[in-house]
Amino acid sequence: MNAHFLLEAVWVMFTYGWVSVASGLVISSFLVLRGSRRARRRARFATLGAAILILWVAMFIGVDAGYRAWQNIPNPPEEAFSDSGGPFVALFLGWLPSLVVLGGAHLLLRLRRKQKETPANK
To answer: Got the DSSP string for 17-86?
Structure first.
């Protein structure tokens, strides 16, 4: 696997499969927003895990749908039919950007909540 598949998969995902990725990002962001307000640690991590899984699946669907749409355009380039690496990258490495984006959002929301709760800010 080389960087070509990764860059091509990202390009295809955001050019042709952006609807799936945007939908997954909206749903998972809502889960992170709701989950970061939970008092119990298990509930926070469960919702964060579910959000990561949802975004991961949305990214895989976005790459797969993107390659299918790219192959159906008039006179598609030869690269459109080399879709073995892109979905493979999204399937096995898609959890990493999901974890970074949603984990960072969760951390920022938790820090903001703790800042609001401290009596020093009053």
So the answer is: SHHHHHHHHHHHHHHHHHHTT-SSHHHHHHHHHHHHHHHHHHHHHHHHHHHHHHHTSSS--GGGG-TTHH
